[in-house]
Amino acid sequence: MERRIKSFLKKRQEEDLLRSLTSSIPLKGGRIRVGGSEYINFSSNDYLGLSLHPEILLAAKKALNFSFGSSASRLMTGSNPLNQALEEKVARFKEKEASLVFNSGYQANLGIISALCSRGTYVFSDKLNHASIVDGVRLSGAKHFRFRHNDANHLEELLKRERGKAKDAFIVTETVFSMDGDIAPLEEIVKLKKEHNAILMVDEAHATGIFGKTGSGIAEEKNLSSEIDIIMGTFGKALGGFGAYVACSREIRDYLINACRSFIYSTALPPAVLASNLKALEIIKKEPERRRTLLKNAGLFRGALKEKGFKTKGSSQIVPVIVGENKKAVSFSEHLKRKGYWTMPVRPPTVPEGEARLRISLTYDHDTGQLEKFIESMADFS
Ligand SMILES: *Cc1c(COP(=O)(O)O)cnc(C)c1O
Question: Could you report the per-residue pLDDT of 80-99, keeping only the tens digit for each?
Answer without folding.
Answer: 999 999 999 999 999 999 99
